[in-house]
Design a protein that fits this description.
One of its GO terms (molecular function) is GTPase activator activity. It is a lipid-anchor. Keywords: GTPase activation, Lipoprotein, Membrane, Palmitate, Phosphoprotein, Signal, Signal transduction inhibitor. It is a single chain. The chain is mainly alpha-helical and 190 residues long. The chain has a single domain, classed as Regulator of G-protein Signalling 4, domain 2. It contains 10 helices and no strands. α8 crosses α9.
């Protein structure tokens, strides 16, 4: 009973934090130095684009991953489920692929492996033994693709499991409802 109450309060706090973080999607920026650099029509376009972006997240997992706000919102959701390690690993792999220095590539690869892939890692991702061993062997000659198999497995897991739950979550449903209500309200007042 106490655990249920705690989780309810925790989810409510997270929902409020999410709405605050994404407030820019629902409100125009306050007047100030930023407002001077944009005309009113540019501000409206930016707001529409941000709102449309949040609505695009439900079209595909790729849309979500291509959006900084989408990734941040999805990450916050995964934290409520205690499963953020998959996204953090996926993001670490994306960053890793941008590395160009051979010496840094090797050290970064070992750090990522220790943090996410090895057995009993602090943020161990849910991959099968075979993929874990392939990844371990890939570290002997680290390349930008040494995590591809493990990254693909975690991406598939998120897309098939976590992403549908995210779209059905109260936080995302509330956000999209507020956006569509805000858009409808604006249309009625113009």
């Amino acid at each position: 009973m106490e655990l249920c109450l705690f989780l309810s309060v925790f989810n409510l706090a997270l929902a409020k934090q999410l709405k605050t973080r994404l407030g820019i999607l629902l409100h125009k920026p306050e007047l100030g130095h930023e407002a001077e650099s944009f005309s009113t029509s540019e501000q409206g376009t930016k707001l529409r684009n941000s709102s449309e972006e949040a609505l695009e997240w439900k079209k595909s997992f790729d849309h979500l991953l291509k959006s900084k706000n989408g990734v941040a919102t999805f990450h916050a959701f995964l934290k409520t489920e205690f499963s953020e390690e998959n996204l953090e690993f996926w993001l670490a792999c994306e960053e890793f692929k941008k590395s160009r220095s051979k010496t840094k590539l090797s050290s970064k690869a070992h750090r990522i492996f220790k943090e996410f892939v090895q057995n009993e890692a602090p943020k161990e991702v849910n991959i099968d033994h075979e993929t874990r061993e392939i990844t371990r062997k890939n570290l002997t000659a680290a390349t930008s693709s040494c995590f591809d198999a493990a990254q693909a497995k975690t991406r598939t897991l998120m897309e098939k499991d976590s992403y549908p739950r995210f779209l059905k979550s109260t936080s995302y449903q509330d956000l999209t409802e507020q956006i569509t209500s805000h858009s409808t309200s604006k249309l009625l007042h113009t």
